[in-house]
Amino acid sequence: MKLQIGVIDLRTLLPWLAILVFSLLMLYSVSSPPGDFDLGDERAAYTVSRIFFERQLLWVALGVVTMLVSAAVPFRVYKDYFAWLLYGGGLLVLVALLALPPLRGDTHRWLVLGPVSLQPSEFFKAALIIMLASFLAGRRGDPDRLSQLLLTLALVLPPTLLVLRQPDLGTALTFIWLMFPMLLWRGLSLRRLIIMTAPLLSGAIVLYGETRAHEGLGAAHLVWALLMLGLFLLMLFSPRVPLVERIGFMVASIGVGLVVPRIWAGLLPYQQKRILVFFDPELDPLGAGYQIFQSKVAIGSGGLLGRGFLQGTQKGLAFLPARHTDFIFSVVGEEFGFVGALVLLGLYGLLILRGFQVAGRARHPFAQLLAVGISSYLLFHVFVNIAMTTGLAPVTGLPLPGMSFGGSVLVATSFLLGLQMNIARNWGRY
Length: 430
Hints:
By secondary structure, this protein is an all-alpha fold. It is 70% helix and 1% strand.
């Protein structure tokens, strides 16, 4: 295999490098005490935590090398050989993790290789994108057929169940999400997608309504009734979907909506409390809601232009947990304000838009689907992480790619963006 060095896609490379530099600045800040406070001997703790910055330097270097190698490998290698190899090998690793002793808070997410700790599920996101792109590109026939959808689900369900056992809800949701934009790009109709996901929407809306019942809110149940009415009308005007399937999804949607309240009523009080706090962390401000509360304080205190580099007090006085990982965006908001946060989101926006542009110009379905999967992966991670840190979504543990401390997500994302550069370099052939 000969590496192919050609034109570099700067519209992918430069935004990613800017994000990595931004990350190093933020991790340096997280590892430093606030400039306006004299912490005395406690400064020693920041010297110890400087290891976050130093390790991230190494991960950034490895990520950039991975990106460039991924961009230089002949594209046919990914197209012809990598899909099943990465998918099958990744599944074996996820299974093996569950057999190993738990680490870090009684979880099975980490694989320790000497001084290095890796999170295999982050790498499996890349494997799943490649697998789905290869599978969907090779399928023939109507994408709306139920058999096509079930086969796609059969690829997504095993890793989803495995990571739920770790447990890792954020990664499981990512696996499920990746399937939908790639199916839509391949030709799945939006009408079919709505019908197919109606039972899930039905259950989620009713469950949310049950969790808000203590506030006397009935809006969720009204939304559920409107959803069922809309679904009924949609099915009347969906002749391409077989009648049996339309009736089946309608019955399933109504059934799920009726069963969820009974399941909720059968839960023990402590089980209900866990779900209530998941949807509304402010019910437990000193426990599950503490992170979100401190995150919102940090972002709000930044104002328009922020407190200034190294001047953040929420991160500096350690009020903000996980400030170097899942809540790194809060540090950006505190020290660089709304403008800094907007610049960071703009960099991610450039990467995501570039991915969809690459997909639109690629010739081969595999290349198109690969680019769509990469952009969808970034979009989901960024959206969920920002929503989580601003209190608009529950805490699911999804990192901000390139910004959060950690090598697994950084190297995996760099590999995917290298693939995006590879596709852009081979527009004329693939």
